[in-house]
Amino acid sequence: MKVRSLTASLLSLATASPPYPVSQAGAKATGRALFAGRKALFDRLSGVFDNAGIDERQLVAPLQWYGENHGWGERNKTYLAAADTLFVDSARQAIERAGLKPADIDGVVAVSTTGIATPSLDARNAQALGLRPDVRRVPIFGLGCAGGVSGLATAARLAAAEPGTRWLFVTVETCSISIRLDSDDPAAIVATALFGDGAAAAVISTQGAALAHVEGSGERLWPGTLEIMGWRVEDPGLAVVFDRAIPPFLENNLREGLDAILDGLGLSFADIDRLCSHPGGAKVLTAMESALGLQTGTLDLERTVLREHGNMSAPTVLFVLQQLLERGLPSRTLMTALGPGFTLAALSLRRPS
């Protein structure tokens, strides 16, 4: 089935990071101390810190917080406080960069999967931002790392459906609050080596000075892959699901999935000048380049963002897009992100003429 071509444009983009930076060396040393009761497990997997391609990450809490015992309630309280700050910071920047005022925003798409907010983050922060009382809200939960692309695509579809309306897209993730020291699951140590926190926001409309035009979007959901990636809901908090099968799965299936999405847009991979991809990890980036026949190192901006911020889940691909915009957007860019499901989300951007 053809994916309908969109006519909305990206008017602005902004990112925000929390206030607690940690070097990868510092994270490894802290992890070794905090996993002291599971020294053999940590030593067996500690190489992931060295091979993750990360130099520094930004966290929503100081390092000592991660060595303390926190239940669901305390973790979610930390999520809400940090998410509110990051939401307002990134959204305010995006609105200002679009040359707009908060009252000009007609709707908000908010994506977050690392905590529970009811009322949702958009409602919690509407007054602080100065949004109108009649602003429409679309909070989305459960997209995980794919949320940066899927959420942006949702905002673009809503803007295109009602020409002239202005939609704010915000994604906030605080992955680090789900770091768990009580687990024997190797994925818990992998998470400790990868996770960072951050937020990104964008304004989408059919009117205004465009950074890029949204041509269309699509998704690919692979049956029988629910256990590859996601969260398990446990006490005392979320437990990450990272299957070792992700890189080989991508090598075997990514091209087919991407080709199917592009075909729905009336495009082929040869029409794409550059990918703008979520860098889930160093091995994932290598697997993507291999699957798509790209020279090793092609996804250089993705590696830069991973090195400087870690895996922030949904916002990460918007950090990559920000760097690509600063470098200079090519004629056609395909944003991609992989998430729970197991899902591939893609969105085509066209440089304004």
CATH superfamily of the largest domain: Thiolase/Chalcone synthase
CATH classification class of the largest domain: Alpha Beta
Helix content: 25-40%
For the secondary structure, the number of strands is: 13
Strand residue percentage: 15-25%
* Helix/strand class: alpha+beta
Looking across the biggest beta sheet, what order are the strands in?
A: 5-4-6-7-1-8-13-12-11
Largest sheet: 9 strands, mixed
Instruction: Output the radius of gyration.
Output: 19 Å
Give the CATH topology of the largest domain.
Peroxisomal Thiolase, Chain A, domain 1
Order of helices and strands: EEHHHEHHEHEHEHEEEEHEHHHEE
Model regions low in confidence, pLDDT < 50 over at least 5 residues: none
The CATH architecture name of the largest domain reads 3-Layer(aba) Sandwich
**Tally of domains:** 2
Quick check: average pLDDT? 94
Discrete helix count = 12
Shape: globular
- Our measurement of the CA-to-CA distance between the termini, rounded to an integer number of angstroms, reads 29 Å
Q: How is the topology of this model organized?
A:
Layout: E1 9-16, E2 20-23, H1 24-34, H2 39-45, H3 47-51, E3 56-59, H4 63-66, H5 72-97, E4 107-111, H6 121-129, E5 136-140, H7 147-161, E6 166-174, H8 186-194, E7 197-205, E8 212-221, E9 229-233, E10 238-242, H9 246-264, E11 274-277, H10 282-291, H11 300-309, H12 316-327, E12 332-339, E13 343-350
Parallel strand pairs: 4-5, 4-6, 11-12
Antiparallel strand pairs: 1-7, 1-8, 2-3, 6-7, 8-13, 9-10, 12-13
Helix pairs in contact: 5-6, 9-10, 11-12
